[in-house]
Amino acid sequence: MAAARKSMHGEWSSRWIFILAATGSAVGLGNIWRFPYVTGENGGGAFVLVYLACVAFVGIPILAAEILLGRRGRQSPINTMRVLADDEGLSSRWAYVGWMGVVAGFLILSFYSVVAGWSLAYIFYVAGGVFNDATIADSQGEFHQLTGSVARLTLWHAAFMAMTMFVVARGVSGGLEKAVKLLMPALFSILLVIVGYSLTTGDAAAGLRYLFEPDFSKINGATILAALGQAFFSLSLGMGSIMVYGSYLPKDVSIAQTSIIVGCADTVVALLAGIAIFPIVFGYGLEPGQGPGLVFITLTIAFGHMPGGQFFGALFFILLTVAAWTSAISILEPVVAWLVESARWSRLKASLIGGVSAWLLGIGSLLSFNYWEDFTPGGRNFFDWAEFISTTILLPLGGMLVAIFAGWRLSLASSMDEFGTGPSVGYRTWLGLILFVAPLGVAIVFAEGTGLRRAVGSFLAAVSTALFS
Ligand code: TRP
């Protein structure tokens, strides 16, 4: 029965297109904007190492699980979880995993579009020569001028959200496929150019040491949780992006192979972004832990000084915007697919209403850089909270539930049928990771990083003292 299901939204025209689309979803601001600055905030090398372990042992197996579930259910994540639970005779409450994804998706899209708006704005700044011969102060000043202006931020945020709604409204093959085919390879090439420049003119030794020399004293529960959250964010996991893309995947495509390709491509881009940025950070004596402005402040200095920088810089921000675009599309798609299936709305209506809601929510993040800068309940401003709740809490939680469902609740016959290789080594490796490593890994990191373990520990200690002393 599952084998005969078809998606009402269409299907990717080939395996290659799926790989491009999934890579387009994965590669985005998460790699180029977020990875370097979160690495900077968490002390460098050791964080990178933990991140790589998270990708390999938790991320890629869950990526495969999401594709598998999506392709078997052939619907939006909410409905996919519901029909699969139904197939297996399980509670329909599994659909809540899809709902959690919708909440996470709105939160992510809201701030994602604000940051993508910065990238959009920077195309014009760089092309206009604003950064020619810029000093650090110029570059920082320009960034703060942008983030200080509510009007400009709102406009760019709106422009980016409009682009996203436009593609999603056009649907799977009409919109998505065309965008990713050309642009992903172009992004990769320009990134290599910047890496070359950065390594030859920045402080390559210091940058590489910072990225690849682990200092384990900088590791604690919170940094490991941050690495796990970053792995989920960067691979687009835990909220249904990859699941919904999997639901458009032709039946004969290998899940194992595609997951590994997408996971590796995403990781390579993140590392390249780090190699492009940190030599400049150290070459110019900048602060690696300065937060969300990092990429915008460092790379523009490089563009301001390199030959042809106006051109390469503009090209870079065009490609970054496109990378963000192909990701944002995949954040909006799950909820739009659900509205089309369940509310019978047209794609246009669903995209508009979904996008505008996320845009409104994004105004809160946008104000966090100016009027609400000092409004920081619990030590975080609105933007930080939106990012923290979605990325560090909801995504790992969603991913863990996907792992539990795919490993423990879905029958082995179903998962093996969908995996398509019989009881091969690949299948068994995946199963082992998805049964034990992924759910336990997330649970432990979670308990440790949020202080839950210590809280439970002191509670138990208090109980036992009360009982036995
Ligand atoms: N992975 C994308 C990036 O790195 C962002 C993204 C797309 C995402 N879909 C997602 C993040 C789903 C979390 C969940 O830019």
What does this 3D model show about the protein?
It is a single chain. By secondary structure, the chain is mainly α. The chain has helices at 15-26, 29-41, 45-73, 77-87, 95-127, 136-148, 150-170, 172-201, 204-212, 221-234, 241-246, 255-283, 294-305, 309-343, 347-367, 382-409, 412-419, 425-449, 452-468. The longest helix is centred in the C-terminal third of the chain and has 35 residues, at 309-343. The chain is globular. The chain binds tryptophan. Tryptophan is lined by residues 25-26, 28-31, 108, 233-234, 236, 238-239, 241, 327, 330-331, 395. Residues 25-26, 28-31, 108, 233-234, 236, 238-239, 241, 327, 330-331, 395 line the site of tryptophan (TRP).
Give structural attributes.
469 residues; 0% strand; binds tryptophan; 78% helix; mainly alpha; Amino acid/polyamine transporter I
